[in-house]
Amino acid sequence: MRAFGLFLVALTITLVGIGQQKPTNLQATKDDSLGLGVILSSNLTNPINDDRIGNRFTQSSEHLECNQFGSRTPGYYVHFKVSVLAGKNESGDAYNASFQLSNGMQFANGFSLGVGLGIEELGAPVIPLYVDIKYNYLPGRISPFLFARAGYGFAMQVEPEEYYDNNNLNPPVGGLMFNGGIGMALFSFQRTAITVGLGYRYQKVTIPLYNYWWSSYSREVETKFNRIEILFGFIFR
Fold first, then answer.
1. Who has the most CB within 10 Å: 12, 54, 63, 202?
2. What average pLDDT does the structure give for the chain?
3. Are 94 and 120 in contact (CB under 8 A)?
4. 3-state secondary structure string, the chain?
5. Residues 184/143, Cβ–Cβ less than 8 Å
6. Partners of 41 in the β-ladder
7. Which whole number is the average pLDDT over 170-179?
8. For residues 73 and 186, what is the distance between their CA atoms, to the nearest angstrom?
9. What is the pLDDT of residues 48-83, one digit of tens each?
10. Rounded to whole angstroms, how far apart are CA atoms 162 and 114?
11. What is residue 4's predicted lDDT score, i.e. its pLDDT?
12. CA distance 117 to 111
C-alpha cells in the first residue's frame, strides 16, 4: 500500500508538471529514405493568452447567473411588509397601520410556504401569528402572485386612563385572522424584490369597555374587523 501511495504521488506530480509545460508546436520534414517525418524544429506560433477573454467569460457567466434568478428560484426567503388597513367604524373612515415579517421556503413550482408575525392596532394592539402561502404565476424577474394568510391575532392589554375603573375587567381577547389578495413582485440583481399588493383582511377582537369609577356597569364588545389592505414590502433571498 505504501508503494502504491508513492506511485500515486509520483503520478500526480508528473501530470502537474506536464500540465505546466508550455505547449510546443513542432514542424517536421520528410525523409524519403525512411518514409517517416523527422522533427527538426519548433517554430509555430505560440497560443494566444489574452486575459480579457477570460474576464469577458467570467462577466458573462455572472450576468447569466443573475438573470436566472427569479420569483420561482428555490431557497429561503424573508418578506418584510408594511400595509394600510382601510375600512369604516362607528366614527367613519378608519385607517390602521400594520407591520409584518414572514420567512419560509420558495419552491420551483411557484409555491412558497412560511410563517409570519406582525404588530398592528385594531381597537387594541394585536400581534398576528400566521401561516403564509404564496403562488408566483411567472418564473421571471417580474411576476404577479396570489397570497393567503391564516392564523390567530393575539390582543394585548391596554392601560386604562385614570378616570376609568379597571377592576374585575378581562383583558382584550384576540381571534382568528385571514388575509388574501393579489400582488406584483419585481426581483433585482441583488437577490431582493419589491412587492406591492391589494387584499382583504379579517380579524376578530373582543375588547372590554372601561367605565367611569362611579359606575358599576361594564361590558365587552366583540368586533369583527373587515379591512381592505394596501401593502408594500421587500423580499430578501
1. 202
2. 75
3. no
4. CHHHHHHHHHHHHHHHHHHHCCCCCCEEEEECCCCEEEEEECCCCCCCCCHHHHHHHHHHHHHHHHHCCCCCCCEEEEEEEEEEEEEEECCEEEEEEEEEEEEEEECCCCEEEEEEEEEEECCCEEEEEEEEEEEECCCCCEEEEEEEEEEEEEECCCCCCCCEECCCCCCCECEEEEEEEEEEEEECCCCEEEEEEEEEEEEEEEEEECEECCCCCCEEEEEEEEEEEEEEEEEEC
5. yes
6. 27
7. 89
8. 13
9. 455 554 444 344 334 434 445 789 999 999 999 999
10. 43
11. 41
12. 20
The confidence score (pLDDT) of residue 214 equals: 54
| Residue type for position 120 | E
pLDDT of residue 3: 43
Which grid coordinates are listed for 46? 505560440
Determine contact, residues 47/193, Cβ cutoff 8 Å.
Answer: no
- How far the first Cα of the chain sits from its last, in Å, is 49
Which of the pair, 18 or 10, is modelled with greater confidence?
10
